[in-house]
Design a protein that fits this description.
- By secondary structure, the protein is an alpha/beta fold.
- It folds into 2 domains: 199 residues, Rossmann fold, CATH 3.40.50; 136 residues, N-(1-d-carboxylethyl)-l-norvaline Dehydrogenase, domain 2 (Orthogonal Bundle), CATH 1.10.1040.10.
- The protein is 56% helix and 14% strand.
- The chain contains 17 helices and 10 strands.
- The chain has a 10-stranded mixed β-sheet with strand order 1-2-10-9-8-7-6-3-4-5, sandwiched between helices.
- α2 links the parallel β3 and β4.
- α11 runs antiparallel to α12.
- The longest helix is centred in the last third of the chain and has 30 residues.
Length: 348
């Protein structure tokens, strides 16, 4: 592992230099990797592993949209595309990439095929960490491992195709074979990780749920909505409000942050923008600290898991979800966003 200085704190990470793809292939040369679930993470990880030369099969409910998507991506029924139970039987590594609710529903099927020496792989520690609520408790004679790409499966695939990588965390929850660590790092390299940093299942869940509800999704939508609504209330047009709130952030400023950091973004803005940002960022931080503390407490206590599981158990969950998403798409801000996107030069 390489030791890297992260802002004064030394951290050990795994890069492709000390653990190259060729080594990963050698470690997994006799393994059959069964991807169970072809929805959010499944396609990106499966296609990247296949393109990197690993033996990959798909397990999915026959006839559904995901089954057809797998076929469209070149997986063939009876060769490397099977029903879930058959894929679990064939796989020596079972990558359990169904949704959290799907993992609960299919657990008995998967558990029946976890014979000694196999590996059970997750990309989210939810099911294991909250086993008291999910019922997911693997047998003692299998490896239980995790690789969690820090982004969507779509992003993982796009970056891979572009010759880049998406950073991932990894963890070993149970090492029954003595080879769990090499297995999980090899899989992390195989799915296209930029670099790998170590965690455990519980920390992955706590950081992931906080991030999704916080700065990655929930908080950013709330921030956008608050500023957009204020500008509209003060008489600004939808175009002006959206461009100043969202478009400039996502199309101009956030790419600069990704390129070289927040200070780089500040340095490439006007002195007026710099001064305002420096004067106001701590006020925003201090305003949201109590919300983040409340959020983390809810995650750490298991309350967020309970809310998620109960919501997914309801027969009308999908209908309710579509209604909630429709509230976003039907809002003036995101209708303005649709209009703005159509006017971008690449779409003209």
């Amino acid at each position: 592992m390489a030791q890297i200085n992260f802002g004064g704190t030394l951290e050990e990470v795994v890069t492709r230099e000390e653990f190259p793809l060729e080594k990963a292939r050698e470690v997994l040369k006799n393994e059959t990797i069964a991807i169970i679930g072809y929805g959010v993470q499944g396609p990106g990880q499966a296609l990247n592993l296949r393109d990197n030369g690993f033996n990959v099969i798909i397990g999915q409910r026959k006839g559904g949209k995901s089954w057809e998507k797998a076929k469209a991506d070149g997986f063939q029924e009876g060769i490397d595309l099977f029903e879930i139970e058959q894929a679990c039987d064939k796989g020596t590594i079972i990558q359990y990439l169904l949704s959290d609710a799907g993992q609960i529903a299919q657990w008995n099927t998967v558990k029946n095929h976890l014979s000694a020496g196999k590996a059970l792989y997750f990309s989210h520690g939810f099911g294991i960490t909250h086993h008291d609520q999910t019922g997911i408790v693997p047998p003692d004679d299998v490896d239980v491992i995790l690789v969690a790409p820090k982004g969507s499966g779509t992003s993982l695939r796009r970056l891979f195709v572009a010759g880049k990588g998406l950073n991932s965390s990894f963890a070993v929850h149970q090492d029954a074979t003595g080879n769990a660590r090499e297995r999980v790092i090899s899989l992390g390299i195989g799915v296209g990780s930029g670099y790998l940093f170590e965690t455990n299942f519980e920390k992955e869940v706590h950081s992931d749920l906080t991030g999704e509800r916080g700065s990655l999704m929930g908080a950013i939508q709330g921030l956008f909505a608050a500023q957009y609504d204020l500008l509209r209330k003060k008489g600004h047009s939808p175009s002006e409000a959206f461009n100043e709130t969202v478009e400039e952030a996502t199309q101009s400023l956030y790419p600069l942050i990704a390129e070289n950091g927040m200070d780089w973004m500040y340095a490439n803005c006007s002195t007026t923008a710099q001064r305002g940002a420096l004067d106001w960022w701590k006020k925003f931080r201090d305003a949201v600290v109590p919300v983040f503390e409340e959020l983390y407490d809810s995650v750490e206590s298991g309350n967020e898991a309970k809310i998620t599981i109960k919501a997914n158990e309801k027969d009308d969950y999908r209908v309710r979800l579509e209604e909630e998403l429709k509230e976003l798409s039907d809002s003036e801000m995101w209708k303005a966003g649709a209009a703005v996107r159509k006017l971008r030069p690449e779409n003209a």
